[in-house]
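debug: dumping io for the single-chain case to check the tokenizer round-trip. Nothing else runs in this session.
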Amino acid sequence: MQSLSSKENYFIGLALSNSSSYDSSICVLDRNSKIVLIDKFYFAQDIDYFFENSHYISQSAICASVPYDNKLLEGKWRIHSKNYKALGDYFKINRNDWTNRISKRCCDTFKKLKEKNIKIIRADINQLRQSYNICSHYLSRTSIDCKNLQTSLKLKYGFDEMPDNMLPASALEAIICAMFAMDYINGAKTHELFQIDEIPVLARDMNN
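debug: decoded output
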């Protein structure tokens, strides 16, 4: 349970997709680890609107996942990234940000939150799943992986209020991010991986 000496009454997890073609989800937990809200968004403007207008924000700590840039899937990148291919002067290594692995989506939104002195961190969802021991041997985000994850969250972490029907993968990941936001405020051991626009991307230590 959250320390009574802190001002955070809510803990917000955002599972952020790398584009509006895929859904992002937000989960809000209260101090007793109960789910207050789960919502799904597609557009960055809607996410920004939530953070500007939700009454939870001023009393919250926030954890947003780090989406990876899907430009890595372009064939041209795969060809030129092969380590045995000689690169001539005609090829600019970072043309069109080909080497950028991290999506900067919603960074302006997070920057505004930080300027309001709201505690915000970033995290890699796969690392969080490992640290909470809720990984599976199934392909990530497949139906059987989501079923396994939802069952694990119910049985291991007590989220009994989750519905019996299957939640979207992004909603389940948002719950994990919200859990990490609460653990971070409670002093869980973390270490910094890197920063995105001066916001730390943290990893949760496995022995917590």
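debug: round-trip ok. Helices lie at 44-53, 75-81, 107-115, 125-131, 143-157, 169-185.
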